[in-house]
Design goal:
This protein is mainly alpha-helical and 245 residues long. It has helices at 24-28, 49-58, 76-88, 92-104, 113-125, 129-141, 145-157, 161-173, 177-189, 193-204, 210-227, 230-244; strands at 37-39, 46-48.
Length: 245
């Protein structure tokens, strides 16, 4: 399940005929704007937000759908304690979650990039592609492109489409347009909106053939369609209303 994507409106499945290159964003732009994962601190499991929304509507949101632990009345401190417990048991997902808090100063944590890198590195050693991607982000923002590229490559090889997009960004900024094109084509084919958006720009500049862009767009639309569901559409509609009200 990709890290973030979903549509804020209910639309029919996108196809090469229903969504031409100039209009693809109408069907899938919302996929780039919303997260699709919800982390449960009690057991370290992750659920898609569409399923989480369905659970909420069913009235069972007071229980974890995985371990059935009580969620009602749980405080921020309770959640942090649960994450730390999972971290002690070497849970890569929980380690990443704790690193995220330090990296961005969330849940009352003081922002500490050194601690975040330490935790992300630990999770990466356990095989987490998310940790590698996050390390890539930290190093990229810090100007260390060599380390950023190393971790983006590790994440991309494990199927992380945003890391693949960022590899293309690094290559593009270095003037390696052919390599950037290859990375973005791979990322777009598995549903990365930003990569598809950049390929569209390349096409408009005459750097990508119509045959190539049609082939990639078809794969992109197919991947986006696979990520859609009525539950996810419903969640995005609710989230969009909340954010705009």
């Amino acid at each position: 399940m990709p890290a973030k994507f979903f549509s804020c409106v209910s639309l029919p499945t996108a196809t090469i005929s229903s969504v031409p290159i100039y209009d693809f964003a109408k069907a899938n732009e919302g996929l780039a704007d919303q997260g699709t994962e919800q982390f449960f601190t009690c057991c370290g499991k992750t659920i898609c937000t569409g399923c989480g929304h369905s659970i909420f509507l069913s009235g069972n949101h007071d229980k974890c759908p995985f371990c059935n632990s009580d969620q009602f009345g749980k405080t921020r401190e309770d959640g942090i304690a649960e994450i730390r417990k999972r971290v002690e048991s070497n849970d890569a997902g929980a380690i990443c979650e704790l690193a995220h808090q330090y990296c961005h100063g969330l849940r009352g944590f003081q922002q500490d990039h050194a601690k975040a890198i330490e935790l992300y590195s630990r999770a990466a050693d356990l095989g987490s592609s998310t940790a590698h991607y996050s390390l890539g982000e930290v190093y990229y923002d810090g100007g260390n492109l060599k380390k950023a590229k190393f971790h983006y490559e590790a994440a991309a090889m494990a199927g992380h489409e945003e890391a693949r997009y960022d590899l293309g960004r690094i290559e593009h900024n270095s003037g390696n347009f052919e390599r950037a094109l290859k990375h973005w084509t791979i990322a777009a084919s598995v549903g990365c909106y930003d990569a598809m958006h950049n390929l569209r720009k390349f096409f408009e500049q005459g750097l990508v053939s119509r045959e190539s862009i049609d082939s990639t767009l078809k794969a992109y639309n197919s991947s986006c369609a696979e990520m859609r569901s009525e539950a996810r559409d419903a969640y995005i509609r609710v989230k969009t209303v909340m954010e705009t009200s």
